[in-house]
Specification:
Helices cover 34% and strands 37% of the residues. It is an alpha+beta fold.
Length: 208
Amino acid sequence: RQSERHSMTVIRKNGFTLIEVLIAIVITAMIITALYSTFFLSRRAVDAVDNSLVKLQETRAVLDVMKREIESAVYAGEKPYTLFKLYDRDFYGKQASMMVVSTFTPLLPGISKVTYAVEENDEKLILTKKIDAAYGRPLDTQSVPLMEDIEGFTVEAGYNNTWVKTWDSAASKGVPDQIRISVKIRIKKEEDPFTISDLAKLRVGKTL
């Protein structure tokens, strides 16, 4: 009997019971689940940050191009193909300015007529851009979307320490001192939208 008890003791020390194996499996499953949940949450956070950065970079890039084109604007009252116009519009209560300016752009030789406007598609606002020849035969160009699903686009003209949302160079016989361009975006649906702005100073009196 002592020999049998000794054998059972040896077997007990060299193996695991079914309960111990089940407990080990349960603990391992809990650890794997916790690790997976942590990884999944971390991945969602990283993706959210990436999407935010992409949206911000996209907005800054659009504003930068727009600023350079505004600062290169050309106007001369005796030349009817030069103009600078701002229209105050809105869609569903959201600001949707429209700007038409004669300027220089690397996409066309000479002076171009560039139009920035907001279009509506399925109740979503899209900031678009259209480039045409300032003089000569008009080009059959289409508006190109720059930013989709924006919350608002505002262009304001600064003149004599006053900001206005409408301007017509034909009526005013000149261009504003500066232009403030603003794009309102929303990173996440559950978050409030915010505005990114930039200031462009026109080169008044530029010769052609």
